[in-house]
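Entry: Fatty acyl-CoA reductase
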Amino acid sequence: MNFSAESPLENTDITREKISAWADSHGAKQVDVYGKPSNSHLQELERIRNLSKELQNNLNDLENSVYIPEEEKQAMNPTAPILDYSEHHEFVSANQLDDYYAKEDQADAREEEQRRLTKGKAAKTAIQRFYKDQCVFLTGGTGFLGKVLIEKLLRSCGDLDTIYVLVRPKKGKDPHSRLHDMLDEFLFHRAHEENPKGIHKVVPVVGDMEEPGLGISNEDRKMITSRVTIIINSAATVKFDEKLSIATGINVKGTKSVLQLAKECKHLKALTHVSTAFSQTHVKHIEEKFYEPPMSVEALEAVAQLDDSVVDSILPTLLGNRPNTYCFTKAVAEEAVRKYGEGMPVAILRPSIVISTYEEPVRGWTDSVYGPTGLVVGIGTGVLRTMYMDEDKVADMVPVDLTVNAIIATTYHTANNFKENQTSDIPIYNFVSGAQAPVTWGQFIDANRRHGTSKPTTKAVWYYGLNPTKSYYMFLFYNFFLHYLPALLIDSFCALTGRKQNMLKFYSKVIKLANILFYFSTQDWRFNDDNVREMWRSLPSSDKTLFPFNMADMSWEYMAETFLLGLRVYLVKDDLSTLPEARKKWNRLYYMHQCLKVITVCVVLYIVYSLFNLISWLVLG
């Protein structure tokens, strides 16, 4: 009787191949003498099976822990429509998402190229070589623009020697503590990673722009005049309704003191004064040149010494056709640069309205609520319901990171030109978007509506519903019925229920912030930016990659999404992980908004009907 090599209980034919296979398996201790799997082999199989299960469980846990935005999930199915949570429930296709992610890939490629250049894997660029071993003195370093400027210098010009930052005590904090806390902010995380030793190159200099001689000690003054080679004056009070005495002290007297300090610097290579594109709003076509100031530097300093009540009474006469103390004093500050900067390597950069970052060091970063930033926050949270603006006027805005790159390039360009030409002419650069990449207020608001309704915030109190108007009387009408009347009703309800009443006070602040923008949202200007374009063309390609500021390359659609996400995360403090929750809330607010509109229409119709009946009864008896 023949027996199987696989089992002693079954008849089978014995072949040479089966005997050979059994011998090999038995020799490898995979089967026993009867051809059954050995215990050691069974244990090995069980171990592999357990490892496989463990790996599968880990993969499942990983999949559950990673948040995949709904847009990406939908993009996996090209035929599935993507719901845009807007009032009109528009749909976008998967192809549009493909275009979006293609732009993201391009941005990542640009960032990787910048990292490559910054980390020294490539030869240093011309601008990097210029800043190598230089000592920079910076005013306004703790402000919105100054922070981004310091961060960029640390990352992309890491070989510089020192950045001296003028800092004053504030809110009980000494300058060293203020600077230390600032450098610990999220904005500087990338600089910490790419240039960890660079943070120690930022050194505070105790002083104050309003004080004589900047309030700098004799010891610090000697150190600055002997070591500093580059000065960037970006300090300014950006409060448009600031007291004239304060605005003059910071914007004019401070600038004058910086120029006097620069004259004492033994090794000065360049000084860049950051002004504003709106310093000359009395003309509609603003060129890159000096204009006649509204008042001399000395006369304004004398007026600022008067009692505030006296100054307030004559302020409208002083301002003339200038909209506010900010634009007024910045115009006089340019006159101070022309007068006291003669014979020095000085330049003026005039950026328009500075908004959040475009790409660097992170997309959409901001810590300022002024201007369009406050406008979009108010719209996105449902707080701002109307705005006085002409939607056809150009909204001239520039991202802060591109502005910083322009400042860095202007300083380099000024030093080179002064060294080569030894000219006393002070160049002016209008850094604006309207000349090369114009966007109207209507386009800007519409882009923010699209992205804001698809990526809402959990902090929203009502659905999107802005009613812009270029009629001031219609604005007053909307403002009363959409802002003050609801606020009054809410405060009345709070008073009856014993709660705190603060809505009227809150809306007064909101409208005050909005009022600041009215002058700029109802008219526009034409800017020349030939000097900026020429400076851009003169840069080598490596510097264009590392320090981009060409406005013609900017996409406002990309910027609008960047702007919204940045405000949501960095200003409203609402993490992107809350998007699913925010969309549910947004849908609820949408239906509540529609119901309220229906109720309002019904109430109005009822009132009209009642009035019609009353008139008919009075007339016809």
